[in-house]
Amino acid sequence: MARRIVAAGNWKMNETPSEAAALIKELVPLVKNDEEDVILCVPAIDIIPAKEAAKGSNIHIGAENMYFEEKGAYTGEISPAMLVDAGVEYVILGHSERRTYFAETNETVNKKVLKAFEHGITPIICCGESLEQREQGITIDWIRQQVKIAFLGVTADQAKTAIIAYEPIWAIGTGKTATTAQAQEVCAAIRECIKELYGEGVSEEIRILYGGSVNAKTAKDLFDQPDIDGGLVGGASLKPEFGQIVNR
Ligand code: PEP
């Protein structure tokens, strides 16, 4: 079965609201493509101007994080209902920067995944190993654990709509892309893990992305791999280069 390619950007903590609107307007003509899902995940304060700037285009707006409670005394957090009301369709969960700097765990990622589904937001669930773990030869075991915990309590119908992003930590923001063979190997292992959890139907439907220094030169080979259904792109999604990645 042919899975639709996803080209998703992660702007991280970049662009003020007015800069975000201007950048989206610049990207709109460059990322036109009816055959792929083009998503830009932006800082929370940029969501509303980004939505406005993307109106009438094929760009979908996503968030970079979300809390797992409905509402209440959680100063500084953003609720799922707030995201839905602002028109958000996707949310990145468990990015390695959130895990490293903000103490996110597999368990909190799982709570967020369940909450996102409850509110009809598609989670882009990140997993990835450190360089040390790769060198220790435990990459696949580590990723399987991250995936299995993230999907605890998720139904098969929900799981097939999820997006998983395999992002080796050593490749994020370093300019060091995993080789296509390394990326394909881990994405295939993730699909196998989903098959064990939910069966072949779900594993063939779920989309698995590679992320880590993807650029206009590396995107085509990566996205052409049988188990890689697109990319989660950081730095290059803040530039016109994102258009070349979408239309490689
Ligand atoms: C990311 O932020 O998820 C990412 C992969 O960043 P970069 O493309 O800059 O490595």
What this model shows, in words?
It is a single chain. This protein has 12 helices and 8 strands. The model has no long low-confidence stretch (mean pLDDT 97). Helix 3 links the parallel strand 3 (59-63) and strand 4 (90-93). The chain has a single domain (6-246), classed as Aldolase class I (TIM Barrel). It has an 8-stranded parallel beta barrel with strand order 1-2-3-4-5-6-7-8, surrounded by 4 helices. It has helices at residues 17-27, 47-54, 80-85, 96-101, 106-118, 131-136, 139-150, 156-159, 180-198, 200-205, 219-223, 241-246, and strands at 5-10, 36-42, 59-63, 90-93, 122-127, 163-166, 207-211, 230-233. It has 248 residues and is α/β, with parallel strands linked by helices. Helix 1 runs parallel beside helix 2 (47-54) and helix 5 crosses helix 7. 41% of the residues lie in helices and 17% in strands. It starts with a strand and ends with a helix. Bound molecules: phosphoenolpyruvate. Residues 10, 12, 167, 172-173, 211-214, 232-235 line the site of phosphoenolpyruvate.
Question: What is the compact description of this entry?
Answer:
The chain is of the alpha/beta class and 248 residues long. It has helices at residues 17-27, 47-54, 80-85, 96-101, 106-118, 131-136, 139-150, 156-159, 180-198, 200-205, 219-223, 241-246, and strands at 5-10, 36-42, 59-63, 90-93, 122-127, 163-166, 207-211, 230-233.
Q: Compute the gyration radius: what is it?
A: 17 Å
Tally of contiguous helical segments: 12
> Portion of residues in helices?
40-55%
At CATH level 2, the architecture is Alpha-Beta Barrel
User: Looking at the chains present, what oligomeric state does this protein adopt?
Assistant: single chain
The count of DSSP E runs of length 2 or more, i.e. the number of strands, is: 8
User: Strand sequence of the main sheet, in spatial order?
Assistant: 1-2-3-4-5-6-7-8
Tell me which ligands are bound: phosphoenolpyruvate
Overall spatial form: globular
N-to-C series of helices and strands: EHEHEHEHHEHHHEHHEHEH
Q: Name the average pLDDT.
A: 97
Distance between the termini: 22 Å
Structural class: alpha/beta
- Classify the fold: give the CATH topology: TIM Barrel
Beta-strand portion reads: 15-25%
Superfamily (CATH H level) name:
Aldolase class I
Number of domains: 1
Name of the CATH class: Alpha Beta
Unreliable stretches (pLDDT < 50, length at least 5) are none
**Largest sheet descriptor:** 8 strands, parallel, barrel
